[in-house]
Amino acid sequence: MKHRKLVGNLLLTFTAIIWGTAFMFQRTGMDKIEPMTFNAARMALAAVFIGAFSLLTDRYAGRKKPSGAPVRGKEKEALTWKKNLRGGIVCGCFLGLASIFQQMGLVYTTAGKAGFITAMYMLIVPVIGFLFFKKKNTWLVWVAVAMGIAGMYLLCMTESLSLTRGDALVLVCAFLFSGHILSCDHYTRKGDPLKLSTIQFILATLISLAGAMIREHPTLQQLSSAALPILYCGLVSGGIGYTLQMISQKMTDPTSASLIMSLESVFAVISGALFLHESMRPKELAGCIIMFLAILLVQLPIGRPEEAADYPNDK
């Protein structure tokens, strides 16, 4: 069991690196294309990539299956697909909306700040778990939440005690990504990660495409000029990253998962500084440090029961 959780945590660390560097591509892409158009293109690319991979793995599994192995009944097959479809729709709604708010926020804020604000989901997840799933948290979690709020204040609040437009949009995205993490934890227990991931990308594409058609003016010129950011965010950050999240969350608990994935904020700051020459004021840097300490604090095992219950599974 410990080995399984270790593998899951290592995969999530790799996912955090992928997502952290993706902020740089998302930020540069906004110079050439509108947010929802960009999001629709990257999600569509991820859906095709993961859908094709899922079909290939199904065919390979069929060939490797022993000839005398029992065939799964139609009712069981239909039930599995129903769970995958339901889970994919729920996860896709959260993913599509969260990605739109994040992408719109990146028009008005830096990649580094967006990474740290998005990482607030690590502190939001245990709060939602307590409010809606009655999952108890240690006193350290509540200390970490208070620190996270203080860090957010230093990182984002202006002298007029208001959030900038970009920071506010990314903060909404953090709440939506919290819902996505909890949904993935809920549905991956009984579903197939690749099929769930494919369905969620299809739905996220439709949500983004609908928004782009209503509020933006997509053109082939925009898509071609932002080809590199779309390819990276679609294939690597989307196709590989979100699918690794689905697979990994079958092996670990949601609080640990949210902690590790929140390390994307660190890699976002590093990549933004190295490649986009972004910098932060001392007040903003202090906010990042406090938030990062909160992220580490929430993972300490002090006062945590060994038999902590998981969130309710899909039945």
Distance between the termini: 23 Å
Mean pLDDT: 81
The geometry reads as: globular
The major pleated sheet works out as:
none
So how many helices? 13
Poorly predicted regions: 306-315
Proportion of strand residues: under 5%
List the helices and strands and how they pair.
Elements: H1 2-29, H2 35-64, H3 74-105, H4 111-118, H5 121-133, H6 139-156, H7 165-187, H8 193-215, H9 220-225, H10 227-248, H11 254-261, H12 264-275, H13 282-297
Quick recap:
The protein has 315 residues and is mostly helical. Helices cover 76% and strands 0% of the residues.
Folded structure, characterized:
With 315 residues, this protein is an all-alpha fold. The protein has 13 helices and no strands. Helix 2 packs across helix 10 (227-248). Residues 306-315 have low confidence and may be disordered.
